[in-house]
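Thread: quick sanity check before group meeting

JM: Hey all, I'm pulling together slides for Thursday and realized we never actually wrote out the predicted structure for the chain we discussed last week. Dropping the sequence here so it's in one place. If anyone has concerns about the input, flag it before I start.
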Amino acid sequence: MKLTACALALVFGVAIATGQDPSPSAPPEPAVQKQATPAPSDELITIPARSASKPAAAARAEAEPKSEATTVTLWKLVQDGGWAMIPLAFLSVVTVMLVLVYLFTMRRSAILTPHYMNTADVLLKKRDYLGLLAISSRHGEAVARVVQRTLDFATKNPNASFETVREIAETEGASQAASLQHRVVFLADIGMLAPMIGLLGTVIGIIRAFAKLGSGDAGLSRDILLASGVSEALVATATGLILGITAMGFYALFRNRAQSLISDLEIASTHVLGLIGLHYGKKREQSRVAVDDEF
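JM (edit): ok, ran it. Output follows.
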């Protein structure tokens, strides 16, 4: 019995020394606690990452509608300009057409060309007026119109004085210069009419805004309704001012060009009249010599 007790005591002592617990249900409890503690830390790490991605997507989603809303608002303001936008659009098209026409027509080659002036100089020195008259009828320069009108009168009225022929040439030259100036005046007219039309559209828009404000039917506040009506009405004034400033700027440009072309026309006409005057001077000398020979 003593040996059996000693053996049992030795077995229990070895089990205690090695750290084993004779009860089988004890070990799973610490293992569950150790595995359960890291799980909350994983959830805490993943949740902020998901929440951080939401503001970026929301910012992108908000940025796209804003750009579209801005474009629609600008187009709506143009549409809200009222009836005044229709004549202003027509005047803008006319302005573009006039500018393009003046750029291609108001050139020095439309007034005179070196080839025509050299031909006229040679034929006038030869006194070939009929040949120069035929050549002038085939040319489109402004100085050719002056020469054609002058020589046509001189050939049909050979007994006319040089003063009369010069008056015919000056009259035709003034007519050609006036046509150049009248072309440019159209831009000045548009520059004055466009702001007035825009201002009229603005006044009518403001009248309508105050009429809506006085009726009291709108659900918006009075300040918001008045501000929106005035802002929409001012679109017509802004459009008219832009068109008017543009038209007046091109008017100043082409007016200076027209003055330069008129100066060239006057110089060329004076040169032609000088050559014609030499012929009339020789004709007078010949008539005086004939009279002296008779006496």
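AS: nice. DSSP finds nine helices and no strands in the chain. Confidence is low (pLDDT under 50) at residues 14-54, 63-70.
JM: adding both to the slides.
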